[in-house]
Amino acid sequence: MTAKQTSDGRDDYDSSKIQVLEGLEHVRVRPGMYIGSTGFDGLHHLLKEIADNCIDEAIAGYANKVEIILLEDGGIKVSDNGRGIPVDLHPKTKKSTLETVLTVLNAGGKFGGGGYKVSSGLHGVGSSVVNALSTKMIAEVRKNGKVHHIEFAVGRTQGKGLEVVGETSGTGTTIIFYPDPTIFKETTTFDYNWVLNYARHQAYLTKGILISVEDQRTGAKESFYFEGGIRSYVRKLNEGKEVLTDGIFYIEKEIEDSEVEVALQYNDTYTETIKPFANNVLTPDGGMHVVGFRTAMNRVLNDYARKNGLLKEKEPNLTGDDIKEGLTAVILVKLPDPQFEGQTKNKLGNPEVRSYVDRVMSEYFAYYLEENPAVAKKIVNKATLAARARKAARAARDSVIRKGAFEGLNLPSKLADCSSRNRENCELFIVEGNSAAGSAKEGRNPQIQAILPLRGKVLNTERARLDKMLANQELVSLIKGIGVGIGDQFNLEGLRYDKIIFMTDADVDGLHIATLLMTFFFRYMPEVIKTGHVYLAKPPLFGLSKGTGSNRKIDYVYDEVALEKKLTEKIEERKAAGTKIDPTQERFKQAGYTAQNRFKGLGEMDAKQLWETTMDPENRVLVQVHIDDGEKADAVFTKLMGDQVALRKNFIQAGAATVNLDELDF
Question: Which residues have a catalytic role annotated?
Answer without folding.
Answer: 432, 505, 507, 509
